[in-house]
Design a protein that fits this description.
Number of strands: 0
Largest sheet: none
Structural class: mainly alpha
Length: 72
């Protein structure tokens, strides 16, 4: 895994920056839910709740895939 160091403005807490980065990486499908939760320092369940509150889908499935799943 790579390491990244960022100098944040004093008014941006590091934990908030980690959370926002992990949410964006998850939303962009660059990392898994588990990896995003780990990066943010949350349990999967807590991270899923945060995603939900921010309007980021936890399960990303197309309508076509959903139809196929329901037909099985």
């Amino acid at each position: 895994m790579s390491r990244l160091t960022i100098d944040l403005p004093s008014h941006v807490p590091a934990d908030e920056a980690r959370l926002l980065l992990s949410m964006k990486l998850y939303e962009a499908e660059r990392i898994s839910l588990g990896k995003a939760a780990e990066l943010a320092g949350y349990s999967k369940r807590a991270f899923m709740e945060v995603l939900s509150k921010e309007g980021i889908p936890v399960i990303n499935i197309s309508p076509e895939d959903l139809d196929r799943e329901l037909d099985d």
